[in-house]
C-alpha cells in the first residue's frame, strides 16, 4: 500500500466526451445491466422445469407491458454489449485504434446493435402472429 | 514485526505467478463463445415467440439444444463473473470489502448458473 499522497490521473469529469469514451462506459454499464437478462434466463428455465402453471406466471410477466419493456431493454443491452464486445475483440488485434477507424467501428457497433434489436423484435412479432 | 521482513518476502505471492493473462484470456474465449450462442439463443427465442408450453419443452428436450443451452448458461455466467470482478476491483478499494464482494459474486453466479443448468437438464431428462 502506498501511503504517500500522489497526484491522481485525470478521471471522467476532466476529459471532453467522445464516442470512444461513451462506448467504453456503455460496454461496462450494459455488461452489468445484462444481469437482468441473466436472471430472466434462469427464471425462465426454472419456470419451464417447474411445470405449466409456473411457466404461465413467467409468461404473464414477459407479455405484460412492464415485461415487454424490460425484455426490450435487455435485448438492446445484450446486443449493444455483444457489438461493442466484438469491437473490443477487433481492437485486441491492433486494428481500429486510429481516430478515424476507431470512430468507424464505434458507429458500426451502435448501428448493428439497433438493427439486431429491432430485427429480433420484428421477427418475434412476426412469429407470434400479431399478438 | 514488519521491519524484520525482507523486501523480497513482502512481494512474494503477490505477483502473477505466470497466470497474469489467465483472466484476460478466459474473458476473450467466453466472449467468442457467447457471441455465437447468444445470437443462436436470441434467434431461437424469436422463432418461439407465441409458442405454447409443450412446444417450448419439446424444443429444449432436443439433445443438441439441451447441450447448447447448458454451454450458454455456463459460458454466460463465467463471463459475467469475470467482468464484474474487474468492476469490483476497480471501485472497491477496501481490501476486506473487496474479498467479501468477490466471494459473494462467485457464490451468486455459481448458484444461478447451476439453477439454470439443472433446470435445463431436468426438462431434458423428462422431469
From TrEMBL, chain B:
Pfam families: Sdh_cyt. It is a multi-pass membrane protein. Gene3D superfamilies: Fumarate reductase/succinate dehydrogenase, transmembrane subunit. GO terms for cellular component: membrane. It is found in: Membrane. It comes from the Bacteria. One of its GO terms (biological process) is tricarboxylic acid cycle. Keywords: Electron transport, Heme, Iron, Membrane, Metal-binding, Transmembrane, Transmembrane helix, Transport, Tricarboxylic acid cycle. Its cofactor is heme. Pathway: Carbohydrate metabolism; tricarboxylic acid cycle. The chain crosses the membrane at residues 29-51, 63-80, 100-121. GO terms for molecular function: heme binding; metal ion binding. Part of an enzyme complex containing four subunits: a flavoprotein, an iron-sulfur protein, plus two membrane-anchoring proteins, SdhC and SdhD. Membrane-anchoring subunit of succinate dehydrogenase (SDH). This is Succinate dehydrogenase hydrophobic membrane anchor subunit. The lineage of its organism: Bacteria, Pseudomonadati, Pseudomonadota, Alphaproteobacteria, Iodidimonadales.
Amino acid at each position: 500500500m502506498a501511503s504517500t499522497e500522489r497526484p491522481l490521473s485525470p478521471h471522467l469529469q476532466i476529459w471532453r466526451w467522445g464516442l470512444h469514451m461513451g462506448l467504453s462506459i456503455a460496454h461496462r454499464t450494459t455488461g452489468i445491466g445484462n444481469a437482468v437478462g441473466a436472471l430472466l434466463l434462469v427464471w425462465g428455465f426454472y419456470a419451464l422445469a417447474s411445470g405449466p402453471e409456473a411457466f404461465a406466471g413467467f409468461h404473464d410477466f414477459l407479455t405484460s407491458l412492464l415485461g415487454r419493456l424490460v425484455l426490450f431493454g435487455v435485448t438492446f443491452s445484450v446486443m449493444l454489449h455483444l457489438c461493442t464486445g466484438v469491437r473490443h475483440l477487433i481492437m485486441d488485434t491492433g486494428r481500429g485504434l486510429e481516430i478515424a477507424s476507431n470512430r468507424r467501428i464505434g458507429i458500426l457497433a451502435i448501428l448493428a446493435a439497433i438493427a439486431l434489436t429491432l430485427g429480433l423484435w420484428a421477427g418475434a412479432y412476426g412469429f407470434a402472429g400479431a399478438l | 514485526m514488519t521491519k524484520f521482513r525482507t523486501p523480497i518476502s513482502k512481494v512474494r505471492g503477490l505477483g502473477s505467478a505466470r497466470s497474469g493473462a489467465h483472466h484476460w484470456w478466459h474473458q476473450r474465449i467466453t466472449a467468442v463463445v457467447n457471441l455465437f450462442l447468444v445470437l443462436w439463443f436470441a434467434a431461437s427465442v424469436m422463432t418461439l415467440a407465441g409458442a405454447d408450453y409443450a412446444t417450448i419443452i419439446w424444443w429444449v428436450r432436443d439433445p443438441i439444444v439441451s447441450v447448447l443451452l447448458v454451454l450458454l448458461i455456463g459460458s454466460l455466467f463465467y463471463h459475467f463473473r469475470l467482468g464484474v470482478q474487474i468492476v469490483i476491483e476497480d471501485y472497491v478499494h477496501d481490501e476486506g470489502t473487496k474479498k467479501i464482494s468477490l466471494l459473494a459474486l462467485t457464490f451468486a453466479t455459481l448458484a444461478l448458473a447451476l439453477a439454470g443448468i439443472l433446470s435445463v437438464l431436468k426438462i431434458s431428462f423428462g422431469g
